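Field reference: "sequence" (input) and "structure" (output). Example, 3-dehydroquinate synthase:
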Amino acid sequence: MIIINNYKFLNIFLSFYKKYNFIFLIDNYIYKYYIKYILFNIKNIKKHIYILKIKSGEKYKNIYTCIKIFNKLNKKNINKKYILFNIGGGVISDLGGFIATIYKRGLYFFNIPTTLLSIIDASIGGKNGVNINFYKNIIGILNKPKIIFIDKKFLLKLNKKNIISGISEIIKYGLIFNKKLYYLIIKNYKYNFNKIIWKKIIKLSIKIKIKITNKDYKDYNIRKILNYGHTIGHSIETFFLNKNINLSHGESIALGFIYEAWLSYKKNILSFKNFLYIKYNIFKIYKYLYKYIYIIKKNKNIILNNISIDKKNFNKYVNFSLLKNIGNCIYNITLNKKFIKKTLFNL
């Protein structure tokens, strides 16, 4: 269930869980600026709330953070009469969903996403996981939150980097599933969350994610199109995380769109005209990303090695979802690693 901007409905929902205590897994920034606001608006919860503050950022989404949290939960004798509230961005929902699912064989959990990316992507669909040595989501599990509550207020104070990171996932939905959304976001990427058009963009993005994940929850078929841009994008993200360079998930994925559109063209799936159009629009929105192309090319062997560790990899092949057209993506395209090495960095 998803509730948008309606604390009255949220409190009615929570009234069915009066017998439970609550844990808030919340990042430091949200705690500092929003904890009083959250506690004021959420009425129907017991007075006993255990708050777990953690640092935000991809580098903290790992098994070591999980172990620290497990130890804290254990010391507090947290049991199955507790519900975990994940309040924050994609790192919090990924981490919190994973922890809730495996701690004492499962606690209920709710998501309150606070970034654009987590609202339209990370908190929806049931994928939870953590990284090992910056390799993305090596350990993971599928489990949906009982509820996702979206409050527009969190969007209004996001910094530019956070917003631009989320926009890449909206672009992805347009590229793989809905060309109208693609043209809509390309035209309106200079965001204003108070505008009706942006409310439409966010709602449409959420609907697309729900539609795809409901059709293929276990990720056997059509859900794989959501991986578009992520095979190359994750390997780029891993490389820059290891170098301690602040390139966000969304920015890395935006670069992944270009590289995987190029592979789509080189496999005669996507037209050259559409490849150029996609590349042009990505660099129109993310002008500053152009400088990373040289760094990626210079370190192509490391990037390729990261691709080899990707969970979609098998033997000498990597499984891709590639574009046939804007708004049309096909999955289970297996590419030989030699072909990838020969082709990928000749943009």
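The chain has two domains: 2-156, 160-343.
The radius of gyration is 20 Å.
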